[in-house]
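User: Could you check the structure of this?
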Amino acid sequence: MNFKGIKTVETSCDNYNEVIYNLIEHGGYLCSNRQQKKLAEVLKRTSSFNAVMYGIGAVTTGKRKFLICTEKINADTEIPIVQLIRNSERSCKMELNSQSIEQIVKQVMAELGNGGAPAPKKPSGDVPKTSKAAMLTKLENYDIKEFPIPEIGDDDILVKVEGCGVCGTDAHEFKRDPFGLIPVVLGHEGTGEIVKMGKNVKKDSAGKPLALGDKVVTCMIFKDNPDITMFDLNKQNVGGADVYGLVPDDDVHLNGWFADYIVIRGGSTVFNVSDLDLDSRILIEPCAVLIHAVERAKTTGILRFNSRVVVQGCGPIGLICIAILRTMGIENIVAVDGNEKRLEFSKLMGATKSVNFMEHKGIEALEAAVVDAFGGYHADFAFQCTGSPIAHANIYKFIRSGGGLCELGFFINGGDATINPHFDICSKEITTVGSWVYTLRDYATTFDFLKRAKAIGIPLEKLITHRFPLEKINEAHVTNLKQEGLKVVIINE
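Assistant: Sure, the predicted structure tokens are below.
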């Protein structure tokens, strides 16, 4: 809707709190469609105003429009107005300042709650005095323990855990403890709801407001370099920082997402992801790994819109890699794996063809199969996602002269790979990049990827094939190790 003399911007806004804060911050009117025209006629007669139109049909019972404006009463005075209109017009004029914002928010949102709009976000019940946590106490064994929930400091956040994915790293720790963390509360692919906040907590790591009831994820803990921000690009990845779910146990204990509650300490990175559903939020961390890998691949200058790309390994990492490439518009993607069900699933993620290495004896036959899948050509670029030294050695054979490779499959020491440097790298002039987890910027980019993937119909949520309660976490890890499905997650009811 446009009115003469009024600048309007229509956008989708799934975060209801954000809409209200914008309404209050700018001052303005919340009105029905019928009353927008009348309001516009009034505003056309004013000398100065700003207007923003919000459509938030996704989170309301009926599609409402928000026209936010500031009417200049005279040359020296600018009075913000918050006016709620439903069946009858009712208004309240008040000066806006930092002390009154909370009171205004409560008033406006309470009014809206009685008018069919969604109720304001509230923490899920009273916070208990203790929290259950799954602590890995020895190899292949979690014990469900109960720990007191500590007092939250001025810079801390208490989050009620909603769910957390079981990562390959968790599986390695469960099976062999390569990081020497036992006893430890694991889980780093988690998400949940803010139920307590310290007085100094105002915004997330991207500058987005934080409030009780917001859904969040964590990224890194830069205790040795707290000045790093999400805008530092590749200045430092997570390999140089701590991550919740992979830190040694301490007197707090609630340091991982395999728990009912987690304590996010000051100096941590946290993101408000209230506009994403639970499954998407659980997939943020593994998706960020692949966002980073693709960004690393792009630095070669070889990965392009029309590239022929081979992705080796169709576990969750490889499948997400395919999905990201597809959202970028790359359509010629060949998936390589030894599991036919996973190869079929790769087609849902965006692969155009697949090659089952179990059907080919020897590297020459496998190479020929990949070339045939590309219509007689080698790949321009390859992603190696298996963590297998043999697979790493093989993948060079699939790449054309002058092509590129991103190796991202090794998150722990998986052993040595045997290659021929002359034939595999030098004579073919292969450009190789390694990728290790992600940066803060990659994490933020992931949120947009998840929305884009959903928009074009890539069913990422189908990656989650098994859901277990916290009490069955041992069974969840055994299922993960057996590779009976794709993504195994812990869900707190």
